[in-house]
Design a protein that fits this description.
With 640 residues, the protein is of the alpha+beta class. The protein folds into three domains: 7-441, Creatine Kinase, Chain A, domain 2, CATH 3.30.590; 448-497, no CATH class; 508-627, CBS-domain, CATH 3.10.580.10. Strand 17 and strand 18 (401-403) form a beta hairpin. The model has no long low-confidence stretch (mean pLDDT 89).
């Protein structure tokens, strides 16, 4: 949503005026549909490329607004977070060399942004979610300082308040009661547009909904967020929850989230989706509108439908129908918001070719879908694809169970070939890109699989999770620059993480995050057993979720020496624990933490943020760091 002058609706007059404009636009749209005034027989394609900036340590670089300002190009727009940017490509005809033209546009414009970014020692990365994003990168300060983004954040906070729990479950689990509105800037995508004849839109949109699951399954590239392995395409869950304005009680009345796949097929008219959007989603934001759409039609002119487009821009359907005017003619198009950015431009063009080919094929078997498969099954297919990626199994027509790989290889790829051929697209181009989809599907090596397999291999080499995410991000960047498709990539290696500053600079890079804790009223015997079982010498002690002490082997031995006659099965931990332990913040430099440990004569350092325990570092962790630093030093000596 790039409209200036956005404000929150906070009075009845603003709300009434907004709704009046909105209803007026819908009546104008219905009149245009009835009078068949939309452009027919012409197909154009377009794209919006989102990207993320990374610094020399492969962390987010907060330079988006500065890069936009320096380049000053109308097709470059800021995004929610300061470490993102978006490029809008011009529409081109869906024919002949369109794929080559799209590739050239992407390469030229991304290169333009890269050259400006390099002046600030940063680089451009194409990925659905940056693996090295930390919680500190999602603060309100990370947002782009523009009124429209501030209005969006303020509106979500106003409507939802503190009654919220953020929850995504995958291989790991992410649960937080923190306000996650700023998580919205952590996702980047490649959004595709396809112009569709108005009289074909019902079948075409329903077809887009059906093929959303398989096109996503073979294109996932967002399996991790805040160090947690979640869905194969975590963007799908993340965006839904970050933009959710519902309060807990709203679940009782089936109110839909503003990021939605939808709840039913289109049946008779494209206008139905706009009816649903107005009826189902309350108006919270507004701006100044300058036209009366019906009066514009009466003059024989083409309306902009400003209010309808504005409202549509606050509802993030994964397949969204958009109204536009190009060269003086109104048109409708489907916006595909499903696909992540990356892994390479080559992969993005392959995903684009696959989706466009399928859309243009639409065989008779898949028309009138309303009577052939329930919408709930299609929606479930989409969510399963987001969770499981290429390994998923779908319930298809005739209630047939089919694996994503089998469906893509045996039925959908031939359809995509047919659709691109029907559009007159250059055969050499589409054959090349669809072959990438084939090889990716046959190998099972999607972007998400590459990330997860790299992570597993790196942990087997006894490095920390944070080191692994840095290495993976570095590997993404290096392979992206080669522009070789994802299925050809070798797994990431620890050497790609760079020197020690990228891996051992701050405590949150080296601290242990898998923690065993006890409460002050637990018995000492429990703590002793946990230490023995897990081969650890320190256990943090909590009260109501806050750190209040630490119990160590030394504190147990000291207490036992002074109270040898007592029964440890009955002694509460509060009598043995060290109260008011020395603690550190996750942003503390490792060097400062070492100095603090030596100065305090302690063997472990709990890491605390907002009174909550977030990690712990011990002498063992510093031995680990020393081993890697020594190996790095020896490698440098051998190379010199």
């Amino acid at each position: 949503m790039a409209n200036p002058g956005i404000k929150i609706i906070d009075n009845e007059t603003d709300k009434q005026q907004y709704i009046s404009h909105l209803l007026n636009d819908i009546r104008a749209l219905e009149q245009m549909l009835a009078e068949k005034t939309f452009e027919q027989g012409v197909q154009r394609i377009g794209a919006e490329q989102e990207m993320v900036f990374v610094n020399e340590a492969f962390r987010p670089a907060f330079i988006g607004p500065e890069v936009k300002r320096a380049l000053d190009r109308p097709y470059i727009t800021t995004e929610y977070a300061r470490f993102n940017l978006e490029i809008n490509l011009p529409p081109i005809l869906f024919e002949d060399t369109c794929l080559a033209e799209l590739k050239q546009e992407l390469e030229e414009k991304i290169k333009e942004v890269e050259q400006e970014a390099q002046k600030q020692n940063t680089q451009v990365l194409l990925t659905g979610i940056l693996p090295t994003i930390r919680k500190s990168d999602t603060s309100p300060e990370s947002m782009t300082p523009e009124p429209r983004y501030q209005a969006l954040l303020e509106n979500v906070n106003r409507l939802r308040g503190k009654q919220y729990e953020f929850n995504i479950q995958g291989l790991d689990e992410l649960i937080t009661r923190d306000n996650p509105s700023t998580f919205g800037g952590c996702m980047t995508s490649l959004q595709l547009h396809l112009q569709v004849d108005a009289d074909k839109m019902v079948d075409m949109y329903n077809w887009a909904q059906l093929i959303a699951a398989p096109t996503l399954a073979c294109a996932t590239y967002s399996p991790v967020f805040l160090g947690k392995r979640l869905w194969h395409e975590t963007r799908i869950a993340l965006l839904r929850q970050t933009t959710d304005t519902r309060k807990p009680y709203s679940n009782l009345i089936n109110e839909e989230a503003r990021v939605s796949f939808g709840n039913d097929w289109l049946k008779e008219s494209v206008a139905e989706i706009f009816h649903d959007d107005v009826a189902g989603y309350k108006a919270y934001l507004t701006k100044e509108f300058n036209e009366n759409a019906l009066e514009v039609l009466e003059r024989g002119e083409v309306p902009k439908l400003e209010a309808l487009n504005f409202h549509n821009g606050t509802i993030y359907r994964w397949n969204r129908i958009c109204y536009g005017v190009f060269q003086g003619k109104p048109h409708l198009r489907i916006e595909n918001r499903i696909l992540p950015a990356g892994p390479t431009i080559e992969d993005e063009l392959a995903n684009t070719a696959f989706w466009l080919g399928l859309m243009n094929a639409l065989p008779e078997r898949y028309q009138d879908l309303q009577g052939k498969i329930s919408f709930d099954r299609v929606k479930n297919n989409f969510l399963k694809a987001a969770r499981l990626g290429i390994e998923v199994e779908f319930e298809w027509l005739d209630r047939q169970l089919v694996s994503a790989s089998e469906l893509i290889l045996n039925e959908l790829l031939p359809l995509a070939h047919e659709g691109l051929k029907k559009a007159g697209v250059n055969e050499k181009d589409y054959t090349h890109y669809l072959d990438i989809i084939r090889q990716r599907t046959e190998s099972g090596r999607t972007g998400s699989r590459w990330v997860l397999q790299s992570y597993e291999q790196l942990l087997d080499q006894s490095i920390t999770p944070d080191e692994a995410w840095v290495a993976i991000t570095a590997g993404m960047l290096e392979r992206q620059q080669s522009n070789q498709p994802i299925h050809t990539w070798e797994l990431a290696s620890v050497k790609e993480a760079g020197d020690w500053k990228n891996r051992f600079w701050r405590l949150d890079q080296v601290m242990t995050k898998t923690l065993y804790t006890v409460e002050e009223n637990d018995i000492v015997d429990l703590a002793a057993h946990i230490m023995s079982w897990k081969k650890i010498g320190h256990i943090p002690v909590e009260r109501d979720g806050e750190l209040v002490g630490i119990i160590t082997k030394d504190s147990i031995i000291t207490y036992y020496a002074n109270h040898s006659g007592e029964d440890f099965s009955q002694i509460p931990i509060r009598k043995v624990m060290v109260t008011e332990p020395v603690v550190a913040h996750p942003d503390m430099l490792v060097a400062d933490a070492i100095e603090l440990i030596i100065k305090s004569n302690i063997s472990c350092l709990p890491v605390v943020k907002d009174k909550r325990l977030v990690g712990i570092v011990t002498e063992h962790d510093f031995v680990h760091i020393s081993r890697h630093l020594y190996q790095e030093l020896m490698d440098n000596v051998e190379q010199s």
